[in-house]
Structures are given as C-alpha cells and as structure tokens.
C-alpha cells in the first residue's frame, strides 16, 4: 500500500491565470500548475518527459491538454500521459479547490 499523500495550500484561485502555467515548489518538487478556461486545476511535475527534458509550465493549455511548443508534444493534464504518436509520462498530482484556496496532494 502506498504512503498517504500530504496536501499543501498552493495559493488562491485568483493567483492563477487561465491557460497559463505557474511554477510552484512543494517538498522540493517543482510543479507546473495549470488553470483551464473552465476553471479546472491540474498539476504536473515541471519536467518534460521528452529525452531532452525542459519545463512544462511554458506549454499551451487547450481543454485538458497541454501542448509543448518545444517538441510539439500533447500531454493529458489529467494523467500526465503523452499522447500518440509520442510516448512518455509526466508525474501528475491531484489538485482541488477548497473555498478559494488551491490545494495540491503530494
């Protein structure tokens, strides 16, 4: 059985611009947090699964996908899975909104 997740307040909802990634650091992990145009929040490790790496926070959000301009990869914000024909996985973390606070599970 896996270890229990800790949750961390990651700022207020209004701190996050829609469709723009924001980098935060929790427990030494650098995360890219995204707010969609529909006010859904997602958090991925801010490390591109591409062999050459790079940040994910600078990607373009459309729906629940992140489009990486460096490698032209499409990543599902819900799971961190890179979409075909490419392959890879970014670590995804659960996010919820409690009142007006964004909360992330690590």
UniProtKB/TrEMBL annotation:
Which InterPro entries would you find in this protein's record?
A: Rieske-like_NirD, Rieske_2Fe-2S, Rieske_2Fe-2S_sf
In its UniProt record, which GO terms are filed under biological process? nitrate assimilation
Whether Iron-sulfur counts among this entry's keywords is: yes
Q: Name one GO molecular function term.
A: nitrite reductase [NAD(P)H] activity
Q: Which UniProt keywords apply?
A: 2Fe-2S, Iron, Iron-sulfur, Metal-binding, Nitrate assimilation, Oxidoreductase
**Which segments constitute the Rieske domain?**
8-104
Q: Which Gene3D superfamilies match?
A: Rieske [2Fe-2S] iron-sulphur domain
Q: Name one Pfam family in it.
A: Rieske_2
Q: Could you confirm whether the keyword Oxidoreductase appears in this record? A: yes
Q: What is this protein called?
A: Nitrite reductase
Q: Which organism is it from?
A: Paenibacillus durus (Paenibacillus azotofixans)
The beginning of the lineage is: Bacteria, Bacillati, Bacillota, Bacilli, Bacillales
């Amino acid at each position: 059985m896996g270890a229990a997740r800790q949750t961390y307040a990651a700022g207020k909802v209004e701190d996050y611009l829609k469709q723009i990634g924001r980098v935060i650091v929790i427990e030494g992990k650098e995360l890219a947090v995204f707010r969609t145009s529909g006010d859904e929040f997602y958090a991925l490790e801010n490390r591109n699964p591409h062999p050459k790496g790079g940040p994910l926070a600078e990607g373009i959000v459309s729906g629940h996908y992140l489009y990486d301009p460096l490698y032209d990869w499409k990543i599902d914000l819900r799971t961190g899975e890179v979409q075909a024909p490419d392959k890879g996985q970014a670590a995804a973390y659960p996010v919820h909104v409690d009142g007006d606070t964004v909360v992330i599970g690590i």
